[in-house]
Amino acid sequence: MESLRRTRRWAMNLALVAVAVAALVAVAVAALVAGAGAAAPADTASPAKPAAEAAPKPASPAGPERWESRVQAHEKAAEASPPPPDAILFVGSSTVRMWKSLQDDFKPLPVVGRGVGGCNIPDMVHYAERLVLPVRPSQVVFYAGDNDLAGKRTAEQVLADFQAFVAKVRPALPRTVIHFIAIKPSPSRAALWDEAKKANALVREYAAAAPGLGYIDTATPMLGPDGKPRPELFLKDMLHLNREGYDLWVPIVRAALEKGAAGAAK
């Protein structure tokens, strides 16, 4: 009997302990839940602000201003190494810029190159005061025009633009001879050749009638017997001259320079 009573008391104590443990567990769980709720952001919290958008890139300058950095590079080069007196100035587009052997090709003549790749004739008019006048050249050899035609300008506009270049240079350099090298027949721009021939003819006629101007026909010998451009004179792009192309030009241009020098001496 006594053993039965002890067993019942032990069972009751065990049940009390279980109830106490369960209560402690319930309190602990409630505390954890309450803590997690306090840490979580309220639904009404302001959304995070998006990162500031990057400032839009400035648009590339249009018109002649797009060549400003290249013109400044020529000006810095001229400050570091001033052109010689009575220099012969080659000025124009990439055909001049890429003529790396210019000085060697025309020794002992004092030649200076001021090419701006991609430019057209109005660009040269715009920058004549900075690229041409400071050099005070005895002769100017001008090459541009094919970029103009590729940009949908007409032969008549090419002539008018070259006339504007002459008008810009002539008051400051009245004795300087200005030569126009014929627009070349590039295979990659064969579709423009008829208009280029027309532009060349107009400039040739203009130069023949005006004192101090010359037209240098480098285009005719660049055509084959079939009347098409000779591809062996061009780089792979079929637009710019290779060494063979420049070699073809050198004696033709040199003869024009000798003639121009003789005319200026009169």
Give your account of this protein's structure.
Helix content is 49%, strand content 9%. It has a domain at 83-265: 3-Layer(aba) Sandwich (Rossmann fold). The protein has helices at residues 2-39, 68-80, 94-97, 102-105, 121-131, 146-150, 155-169, 193-209, 243-265, and strands at 88-92, 111-115, 139-143, 177-181, 213-216. The termini are far apart. With 266 residues, it is of the alpha/beta class. It has nine helices and five strands, in the order ααβααβαβααβαβα. Strands 2-1-3-4-5 form a five-stranded parallel beta sheet, with helices on both faces.
Q: What is the gist of this entry?
A:
The chain has helices at 2-39, 68-80, 94-97, 102-105, 121-131, 146-150, 155-169, 193-209, 243-265; strands at residues 88-92, 111-115, 139-143, 177-181, 213-216. With 266 residues, it is α/β, with parallel strands linked by helices.
Broad shape: globular
Can you write the helix and strand succession as a string?
HHEHHEHEHHEHEH
Task: State the end-to-end CA separation.
Answer: 152 Å
Beta-strand content bin: 5-15%
Q: In what order do the strands lie side by side in the largest sheet?
A: 2-1-3-4-5
Under the CATH scheme, the architecture of the domain at 83-265 is 3-Layer(aba) Sandwich
Low-confidence stretches: 27-46, 48-52
CATH class of the domain at 83-265: Alpha Beta
Mean pLDDT, to the nearest integer, reads 85
Q: What is the CATH topology of the domain at 83-265?
A: Rossmann fold
* Rg of Cα set: 41 Å
Computed structural class: alpha/beta
- Largest sheet, strands/sense/barrel: 5 strands, parallel
Helix percent reads 40-55%
Number of helices: 9
CATH superfamily of the domain at 83-265: SGNH hydrolase
What's the number of extended β-strand segments?
Answer: 5
